[in-house]
Amino acid sequence: RFLPRPISGNTQELIPSNVPEDHLKEPDKSSHSDEQEPLVYGDALSQAYINHHHLALGVRQRLLAAQRREVESAVRSAVDTPPPCPRCSTAGSPAGCQRCPVTIVMWDQAISVEVPLFWCQDCSSNYSIQPTVVDCLPDNRTFWDVSRRIGDNAVLWWHRTVLQQYHQLTCLLRRVSADGFCAAMLSNWEKNGVPCPSSVPVSSLRKRMHLAQLAYAHLQSL
Question: Distance between CA 99 and CA 114 in Å, rounded?
Fold first, then answer.
């Protein structure tokens, strides 16, 4: 059964007669003040951060370790199944203990690996796995095959996730400088407790990332 209830002027609203009067009152907005207050103003956030700091640090270290294991595993698996020679497609064999040091650049850390070299009997030359095996791109044509490395030049392979991140930022913000991005990346390594390897040329990092970014942009256009 519905009873007429005036709400304004001559307008009437049909309201069930069995609805308690207190349910018809306006909600108390003060009761939602805690929900609307930013978490930063509460003590719970600071206390939880202090209490769980060591647990959170352990989680981060395990995530970084998992990254390293996956990359190192991909490189090691190449020894078990040697890739074919890029020149003649003949199956090669490991070239003894010859390896080339490579630094894989990621946003959260830099990972140093030893990339094995292989020997092609038909071509009588060495060759290596290509950086795309570990989802990376080189910043130099020579480093596409690290067996061609000359002298002590540092070999950097840029993981595509970090190139993707820079590409997205420049497309959306258009005010991200390569110098600022590289500086932020180095700072992120430090905050993660990962020292910058001596093989990373900090002074030329921006230029080398730009070259790797050109390769990334080319792949995006395919």
Answer: 6
d(CA 107, CA 184): 9
pLDDT digits (tens, 9 = 90+) for 128-143: 999 999 999 999 988 9
Query: Which pTM value belongs to this model?
Result: 0.78
CA distance 85 to 187: 39
Residue 25 DSSP class: S
Q: What CA–CA distance (Å, rounded) separates 38 from 21?
A: 34
- What's the distance, Cα to Cα, between the start and end of the chain in Å? 70
Please state at what angle helix 160-172 crosses helix 178-191, rounded to 10 degrees.
130
Q: What is the pLDDT of residues 85-128, one digit of tens each?
A: 988 998 888 877 788 999 999 999 999 999 999 999 999 989 99
- From residue 111, alpha-carbon distances to 51, 66, 94, 101, 104 in Å are 31, 12, 23, 10, 5
Please list the alpha-helical segments (H only) found in the chain. Answer: 33-36, 43-51, 53-80, 160-172, 178-191, 205-220
Question: Where are the chain's structural domains?
Answer: 53-220
Q: Which tens digits make up the pLDDT trace of 9-66?
A: 554 455 555 655 655 556 555 555 556 667 666 688 888 888 998 898 899 999 999 9
